[in-house]
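## retry 2 of 3
previous attempt timed out at serialization; input unchanged, resubmitting
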Amino acid sequence: MKDQTEHMGRDWRTKAEIAGHYQIGVRTVTKLMRRKILPYGKLRNLVRFDVAACDRAMEFFGNSSRLEGLKRTAPDGRAARHWQTKRQLAGHIRFSERSITTLMRQQVLPFLKLGRIVRFDLAECDRVMESLTIRSVVERRLSSQPNVTDPSSRFLSSGT
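## retry succeeded, writing output
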């Protein structure tokens, strides 16, 4: 009787639901099962995952703060981050996949790696690319001058 009440409160999900929970493919879930990273219960051909146990396993396997971003919604209810594969990121910033790999190796681009799964947060990568952008001399001069159309800028330049 104690065993039955112990299992009553668990949230059991299918392989497809776990894949959706972590925003990874069903095939990736299968690979994580084979590598014994994700705990699961199996009865003949019926496979179920305990979400809490999977979360603990993923926390042990990787950084838990990064794993929160893999879920569809964060704990505080804000929108999920947009995770992309290496090929998707290469298409977005118009680099080759090999260049993305080089930037990963040089630790220029932030990425999440769980086993052989590599994902990039699109917003963070865009911020990095923006910080690496070299502005022209004209842009630098224009940004350093006070805004002429702003009425408050005339007080700054007049010295009164």
